[in-house]
Amino acid sequence: MVKVKWLGHSTFQIKNGGYTLLIDPFISDNPKTSASVNEICADYILVTHGHHDHLGDSIEIAKRCDAIVITTNELGHYLESKGCCVKRMHIGGGDNFDFGRVILTKAFHGSSVIDEKSNIIYTGMPCGFIVQIDGVTIYHAGDTGLFGDMKLLGERYDIDLALLPIGDVFTMGVRDAAYAVGLLEPRIALPMHYKTWPVIDQSPDLFAEMAQRRGTEIMILEPGEEIEL
Ligand code: NI
Ligand code: MN
Q: How far apart (Å, rounded) are the C-alpha atoms in residues 106 and 194?
């Protein structure tokens, strides 16, 4: 059994019997999670891009827990320079791990880290992830606009759970995310990246209403809630 817990924003914890994965662990500065970063550990940390609301606490958790960070080549080099153990990959590539398989998917967005002197360090392309674990396929879209190749992902993978941003302004909004559900045809879709701050205050109910017409089950969680697959 695979448990997927939403910690608010784009942060998810995926657990099976033996392993804990974190995706985009944005915890200490996340106004929507009551989780404490010190209490969170993982075997693997998957990071979609360098923006602070996604890279988040990855470095701290990776070092404390001896976790392996799975991310793009460029962001991976940056994280290695910060002392993290990294599995560098790139878009279209997959690899097998002891818990299952991860494939990096494209995302249309940016990826950068702001250093201590407020300089922007570009960290290559952002990505999304297909995670295959215990026979379950999860798609985390990362931060992205709508793109037509989501249809390709829907054809190539039998997606059980799609995690899609709906917050608008920086990513897809409700309408485009509902359209994405039609392209991906997942069994379940779950909205993320909304209401963290007023600028992305969008309605998950409207997303559910628009996406349900497409035959996918829409689940709306509160931060801290989890589903079992
Ligand atoms: Ni971003
Ligand atoms: Mn973001």
A: 21
- pLDDT at position 113 over 90: yes
CB-based neighbours (< 5 A) of ligand 2, an ion: 53, 143
Closest ligand to residue 75's CA: 1
Ligand 2 centre to CA of 194 (Å) is: 9
Distance from the alpha carbon of residue 196 to the mean position of ligand 1, in angstroms: 13
CATH label of the domain that carries residue 121: 3.60.15.10
Q: Which domain holds residue 157?
A: 3-216
- Give CA–CA dist 181/211, Å, rounded: 6
Model pTM? Answer: 0.97
Residues at Cβ < 5 Å from ligand 1 ion: 51, 143
Q: Quote the ligand 1 centre to 53 CA distance (angstroms).
A: 7
Q: Is residue 222 part of a domain?
A: no
pLDDT digits (tens, 9 = 90+) for 136-187: 999 999 999 999 999 999 999 999 999 999 999 999 999 999 999 999 999 9
Cα angle: 14, vertex 190, 160; to 5 degrees: 65
The structural domain count of the chain equals 1
Cα of 193 from ligand 2 centre, angstroms: 7
Ligand closest to the CA atom of residue 108: 1
CA angle 30, 35, 41 (to 5 degrees): 110
Q: Does 229 map to a domain?
A: no
pLDDT in tens, 194-211: 999 999 999 999 999 999
Residue 30 pLDDT level (bands cut at 50, 70, 90): very high
Residue 225 lies in a domain: no
**Of 54, 63, 139, 125, the residue nearest 89 (C-alpha):** 125
Q: Compute the distance from residue 18 Cα to the ligand 1 centre, in Å.
A: 30
| Residue 227 included in any domain | no
Report the pLDDT value the prediction gives residue 29, as an integer from 0 to 100: 96
